[in-house]
Specification:
The chain has one domain. It starts with 17 loop residues before the first strand and ends with a helix. Strands 1-2 form a two-stranded antiparallel sheet. With 98 residues, it is of the alpha+beta class.
Amino acid sequence: MPDISPINHLQGSSVPASIQRTQVDAPATTASSPKHTEIRDRVEISDHARHLEKLRQSPDIRQSKIDAARSEIAQGTYETPDRLRAALLRLLDEIEPS
């Protein structure tokens, strides 16, 4: 079954990581000593996983954006014909993609 990542981080963070087991032969000290084998695990974290972790640590709310919107609403400059047109076009594009 192929790995299918979730579309957003709300569904959990099952980020695929590459895990490899390597076997390293320890150097023999004498000809009569038994050969010892050391097994080491190695984990590689993908760039996608690193990016998701940065997003997880970032604040959910950007207060500067909220303050700017509140200020524009208070001044009566938030709702402009251009902004309304852009919002309507985005809505129509979501409903009926080109």
